[in-house]
């Protein structure tokens, strides 16, 4: 499928790989501008004009400009998805279940747990060391991810037993968790191995480099 007008900004993080992976699953042609989050590139005047948040990832598709990995990934699937790749939700109910998982993954696993680890670990020079916060964040992640673990013991994927955007987000969080020293259950490890073996993930991983 052609999508030559699409430009994705940002690489090198768990959040930037998400729309890249979706684009690869959809078979889209896109230009990737691999700027990093703390290289100064998001602070330039030209990029700030595009995205005043000075964050990545960011999407341009024709006249549409869009930030936030959830919004970008959802848009790409709704605009370009097919039953042969990643189809848009087939019903209001299916979209509601996807949104439920996305909200949970982004809110409880990404922002409330994993980013706390990054903030007070790799970015401690900026935000300060906080060993108690790190310990609590790891414990919180393990408590919350157990919900997905239990669900995935009954199904291969999070929603309607088919690969979808919620799986993209959970996978990136599980990779992030392992790299942060958080152990995963055997069932989550098995799920993660299946996700990482996807050709589109491998292609996205290769693209998501600085």
TrEMBL record:
Which residues are the signal sequence here? none
Q: Which domain of life is it from?
A: Bacteria
Indicate the segments forming the GST C-terminal domain, all copies. Answer: 91-210
Q: Which residues belong to any copy of the GST N-terminal domain?
A: 3-84
Family recorded in the similarity comment: Belongs to the GST superfamily.
Q: What is this protein called?
A: Glutathione S-transferase
Name the species this protein comes from. OM182 bacterium BACL3 MAG-120507-bin80
């Amino acid at each position: 499928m052609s999508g030559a007008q699409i430009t994705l900004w940002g690489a090198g993080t768990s959040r930037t790989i998400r729309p890249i992976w979706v684009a690869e699953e959809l078979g889209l042609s896109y230009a990737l501008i691999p700027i990093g989050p703390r290289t100064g590139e998001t602070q330039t005047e030209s990029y700030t004009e595009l995205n005043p948040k000075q964050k990545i990832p960011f999407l341009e598709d024709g006249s549409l400009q869009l930030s936030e990995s959830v919004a970008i990934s959802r848009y790409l699937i709704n605009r370009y998805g097919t039953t042969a790749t990643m189809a848009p939700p087939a019903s209001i109910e299916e979209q509601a279940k996807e949104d439920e998982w996305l909200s949970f993954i982004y809110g409880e696993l990404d922002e409330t747990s994993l980013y706390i680890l990054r903030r007070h670990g790799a970015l401690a020079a900026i935000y300060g060391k906080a060993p108690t916060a790190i310990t609590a964040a790891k414990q919180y992640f393990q408590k919350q991810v157990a919900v997905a673990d239990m669900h995935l013991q009954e199904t291969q994927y999070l929603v309607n037993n088919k690969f979808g955007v919620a799986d993209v987000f959970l996978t990136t969080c599980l990779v992030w968790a392992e790299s942060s020293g958080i152990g995963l259950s055997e069932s989550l490890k098995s799920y993660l191995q299946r996700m990482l073996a996807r050709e589109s993930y491998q292609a996205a991983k290769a693209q998501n480099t600085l």
